[in-house]
Design goal:
With 257 residues, the protein is α/β, with parallel strands linked by helices. The protein has 6 helices and 13 strands. Strands 6, 7, 8, 9, 10, 11, 12 and 13 form an 8-stranded parallel β-sheet that branches. The protein has a 5-stranded mixed β-sheet with strand order 1-3-4-5-2. The longest helix is centred in the middle third of the chain and has 22 residues.
């Protein structure tokens, strides 16, 4: 279904039903008519970010009302056979916006904003955080449309690094890029073989621009997080996150298309 224009339908709204007419969300209708310039009779793919997709044909595109489509088929995608979690120290500015888009393209399942001693992108007031979280959700939806990913990642609330490590569930293989502690070269973490990892549960922790503090290094190592060497060059924190994830996803057991 990835070849058709994609429209997001929230699971908090009425979901499409096969064989029935469906009124698209207002924002999606506007995008179809004003940006993509679609016409009645064209096919679209609706998705809920939880693995369901519907193929539909547009029937009406009224100027001041939501577009209507007839739902022709429904697909339920299986849950990813892996768990890939990024815990990212919040960078300053809008760097996180672009990071959210890229991690959706890479198939991330969970994203947790971390508050560390040296991070520069603190969540701010509850109102500011609510706006930022909504913006990130919008970025994730747009990336899912572009990439064809039927799943949106779980976006968790900001949390202090120490608390996050204390709540880390058992069975998770945790890694962190570390500048001050000798680590295993990232190229040797996942040996190149024809066999992909079976049901992996992987966590990457990426620090802020100013790196982790000495006490945070102690907390990471005490929690069993494996130090990883990203090479001789110092990366921006969002670059380091994508570098780590890209080196991981090629070994994940993606379901067949």
């Amino acid at each position: 279904m990835a070849g058709f224009p994609r429209c997001y339908v929230s699971d908090t709204e009425a979901l499409p039903v096969e064989g029935e007419s469906f009124s698209l969300p207002e924002e999606e209708s506007h995008h179809l008519t004003r940006v993509l310039r679609v016409r009645p009779g064209q096919k679209v793919t609706l998705f809920d970010g939880l693995g369901k997709e519907w193929e539909a044909t547009l029937t009406e595109l009224p100027r001041h009302r939501p577009a209507l489509a007839v739902i022709e088929s429904e697909t339920r995608h299986p849950e990813p056979p892996y768990h890939l979690h990024l815990a990212q120290a919040m960078p300053k500015g809008k760097s996180m916006d672009q990071l959210v888009r890229r991690v959706v393209e890479l198939g991330l399942t969970d994203l947790t904003p971390l508050i560390t001693e040296r991070c520069e992108g603190l969540p701010g007031s509850p109102t500011e955080w609510k706006k930022r979280k909504q913006r990130w959700h919008t970025q994730a939806v747009e990336a899912a449309k572009q990439s064809g990913n039927p799943f949106l990642p779980n976006l968790h609330e900001p949390i202090l690094l120490k608390e996050f490590l204390r709540e880390k569930p058992t069975g998770v293989k945790g890694y962190a890029g570390m500048l001050e502690v000798p680590g295993q070269p990232i190229g040797k973490l996942f040996p190149i073989t024809d066999k992909r990892m079976e049901a992996p549960n992987i966590l990457w922790i990426i620090g802020p621009e100013g790196d982790f503090s000495p006490s945070e290094y102690e907390d990471l190592l005490a929690a069993g997080i494996i130090p990883v060497d990203f090479g001789p060059l110092v990366m921006r924190c969002e670059t380091a996150a994508l570098f780590a994830l890209a080196n991981t996803v090629s070994h994940l057991p993606f379901p067949p298309k």
